[in-house]
Amino acid sequence: MTKLYKFLSLALLVSGVTQAATDNPWYVGARIGGTNFDSFDGALDGRESAFERDDWGGGAFIGYNYNSWFGVEGGYTYLGQADFKQGNSGFEVQGLDLVGKFTWSATSDIDIFGKAGGYFFDVDNGVNNEDESGISGTVGVGAEYFFNEDLSARVEYQYYNQVGDNDPGESDVHFYGLSLVYHWGAQPTVAIEPAPEPVAEPAPEPEPVPVEPEVIEIEALSLALPFAFDSNALSQADIDRLKPIGDRLVEYPGLKLYVIGHTDSRGSEEYNQKLSEERAAMVASYLGTHFGVEKDRVIVQGRGETDPVAPNDSEDGRAQNRRVQVYTPGFELTES
Predict the structure, then answer these.
(1) Which distant-in-sequence residues (6+ apart) come within 8 Å of 306 by Cβ?
(2) Phi-psi label, residue 244: left if phi above 0, alpha if psi -120 to 50, beta otherwise
(3) In degrees rounded to 5, what are phi and psi of residue 243?
(4) Which residue ranges of the chain lie beneath pLDDT 50?
(5) If 0-12 CB within 10 Å is exposed, 13-18 middle and 19+ buried, where does residue 291 land?
(6) Residues 6+ apart with CB under 8 A from 55
(7) HEC string of 6-20?
(8) In this structure, are strands 298-302 and 214-218 parallel, antiparallel, or unpaired?
(9) CA distance linking residue 24 with residue 183, whole number of Å
(10) What is the C-alpha separation between 283 and 276, in angstroms, rounded?
């Protein structure tokens, strides 16, 4: 069990929260590779030299990613057979995996992952003429390369702890191999038209009246909403701060709204650009839904990490840079 704890700790270590290399939540795959049997126990204890302990293995799996760093994966795995040298029998293993998958995105194309869970095994123990079934612990690590959003390949190692029944005999099994994976199910992305720099609305032309009209200067209204690291969620405090801007948009139906998202410098440029667009879209969607603002009045833009307001070399500076700027320009209102 010491090996199991070591590999489980490694699997949890690589579960850092970053963006996955694909947004597709569902995936299926097939894998093939080599297997090795060792650490015999029970009735097989001390008999490693009586077996041919290397064979081939493989299987198929399906998985679902709940977010960018955690998913659940299950499938069938054949772990091969340790052939008994003194006869035609052997110790043959197959079964079903059910594991949690922890992912860390090393680059925009490569993920590092760890797996931990259970293996529901079925063992044909020809040495002792026993059929055995049960559950053993399993952990694994690997790397995954994405050719595109839909197709990837893995290289991985997986450890199965004491597969079999202790009375007839059990063994650790090691699998190492390659996988090909197909991904699907992402929601289509909506392109956001880049917004121009906020500019002041031209003053409306006053209609000719016998009396000199009164011109009222309406000042620009803006605020910067802070966001937590790697988040695009609005808090209740953010919603309360947005109310004055929503009220102004309702009061002046012709007024434009500019929403511009920003991030700090942590993460890749591609991920930060996407996150800034998601933050801006979240704010724009809330104002549009709760205050009835038409889409053609809202200009939404994400600028990623390219427009910081403070240095990114401290937590305080990075916190200032994780923001969404919400802006309604000033204008002149003519009253007769």
Answers:
(1) none
(2) alpha
(3) -60, -45
(4) 1-19
(5) middle
(6) 34, 35, 37, 79, 80, 81, 82, 83
(7) HHHHHHHHCCCCCCC
(8) unpaired
(9) 6
(10) 11
229 DSSP 8-state letter: T
- 71-99 exposure pattern, b = at least 16 Cβ within 10 A, e = fewer: bebebebbbbbbbbeeeeebbbbbbbbeb
Closest CA to 177 of 27, 14, 55, 3: 55
Cβ neighbours around 312 below 10 Å, total: 15
Model confidence pLDDT, tens digit, residues 171-229: 899 999 999 999 998 877 556 667 677 777 788 887 766 666 677 777 888 888 888 88
- Which of helix, strand or coil describes residue 190? coil
Amino acid of residue 207: E
Which helix (H) or strand (E) covers residue 41, if one does?
strand 26-41
Phi, psi of 248 (to 5 degrees): -65, -40
Q: Which two tokens stand for residue 290?
A: 């709760």
| Segments of the chain assigned E as strands | 26-41, 51-52, 54-65, 70-84, 90-105, 110-125, 130-146, 151-165, 169-184, 214-218, 221-226, 257-261, 298-302, 323-328, 331-335
With CA atoms as reference, report the closest residue to 323 among 285, 282, 295. 282
d(CA 90, CA 242): 70
Question: At residue 204, what is the residue type?
Answer: P
Per-residue tokens: 95: 């079964």
Q: In which residue are the tokens 């992912």 written?
A: 103
| % of residues, the chain, pLDDT over 90 | 40
pLDDT at 34: 96
State the first-to-last Cα distance of the chain, in angstroms, to the nearest integer.
85
Q: Is the dihedral angle over the CA atoms 189, 190, 195, 201 positive or is it negative?
A: negative
310: Cβ contacts below 8 Å, ≥ 6 apart: 316, 317, 318, 320, 321
pLDDT at position 336: 59
Residue for token pair 């659940």: 72
